[in-house]
Design a protein that fits this description.
- By secondary structure, the chain is α+β, with helices and mostly antiparallel strands.
- Helices cover 27% and strands 30% of the residues.
- It has two domains: 6-109, Aminotransferase class 4, branched-chain amino acid transferase, N-terminal domain (D-amino Acid Aminotransferase, Chain A, domain 1), CATH 3.30.470; 114-261, D-amino Acid Aminotransferase, subunit A, domain 2 (D-amino Acid Aminotransferase, Chain A, domain 2).
- It has helices at 26-29, 48-62, 72-81, 114-119, 142-153, 197-208, 220-224, 253-261, and strands at 6-9, 12-15, 33-41, 44-45, 88-96, 101-109, 121-127, 158-162, 168-171, 175-180, 183-186, 212-215, 229-233, 237-244, 247-248.
- Strands 7, 8, 9, 10, 11, 12, 13, 14 and 15 form a nine-stranded mixed sheet that branches.
- The longest helix has 15 residues, at 48-62.
Length: 273
């Protein structure tokens, strides 16, 4: 990652060199922090309040009292100062330093993964059991990075995380949906996976379009037998699953087309007419 030039720190846009943390900080030693990735387009963050709400829910789970978080206008100033009017990724971190919680935000240029959205992802099933914080997005990402690197080393796009009982959780960076008969199924949160912001948007949009959407346990065999499956995340948006292990899956063309027509709130998608 290229180091950003500007950060939001203490409510002000400052040089990135102002953001420092000691190696003995809990944020470094234990990965003690909450983390959000927000898609941006047109110089504005997408679904920003929902990301703030998720940080708030995580803080309540940890028993933390959050510091003041940057508002949408402050983020717009950061994006403008960084010259990111097109697709961008906003990183928002609340870190536990030795004396207090601190919030910092920075932006990175983002190239929408058009080929991945078109051709789909290949997922390698890996066992990585959910812990007590499965529904909280912390900055401790070591196990997820390990899973992703193992999948990529084996020729896959990402890892499909399986719980201790073999049930599907999520990918190493995205939520999972599968069309099974007359319903769309996604694993339950917070027991199995993160409550993704685009996951929530997808569920509400599908329901508004008349689809039956169910949160329940999902077996790998069901996923493989599905009439299509896809991943959702704030940056990649909607990505069809073309393969799980060695099993090929049909493309969920109709479902994705209807969601795209509704205006996917992720970078690089056409604005809703």
């Amino acid at each position: 990652m290229k180091q950003p030039r500007w950060v939001l720190l203490g409510g002000r846009v400052r040089s990135a060199s102002a953001a420092r943390v000691a190696i003995w900080s809990p944020a470094v030693r234990w990965g003690a922090g909450l983390y959000e990735t927000v898609g941006c387009e047109g110089g504005l963050p997408l679904l920003y309040q929902r990301h703030l709400d998720r940080i708030g829910e995580g803080a309540r789970e940890l028993g933390w009292e959050l510091p003041a978080l940057p508002g949408e206008e402050q983020i717009a100033v950061l994006l403008a100062r960084s010259s990111f009017a097109g697709p961008a990724a906003l990183r928002l971190l609340v870190a536990a330093t030795p004396h207090r919680l601190r919030a910092v935000a920075w932006a990175e240029r983002f190239r929408p993964p058009r080929r991945l959205r078109r051709d789909g992802a290949a997922l390698l099933p890996l066992e990585l059991p959910a812990g007590p914080l499965a529904g909280v997005k912390t900055c401790d990402r070591f196990a997820l990075r390990w899973a992703n690197r193992r999948a990529r080393a084996s020729g896959y796009t990402a890892a499909l995380l399986l719980d201790a009982d073999g049930m599907v959780r999520e990918s190493d960076h995205a939520n999972v949906f599968a069309r099974l008969g007359d319903e769309v199924v996604t694993p339950p949160t917070p027991r199995r996976c993160l409550p993704g912001v685009i996951r929530a948007w997808t569920m509400s949009t599908l329901r508004a379009q008349g689809s039956r959407v169910v949160e329940r346990d999902l077996r790998v065999a069901e996923l493989i037998a599905a009439q299509g499956a896809w991943l959702t995340s704030s940056l990649e948006g909607l990505v069809p699953v073309r393969r799980v292990g060695e099993a090929e899956l049909p493309s969920p063309t109709l479902q994705l087309a209807r969601l795209v027509a509704a205006g996917v709130p992720a970078p690089g998608y056409p604005a809703r007419a």
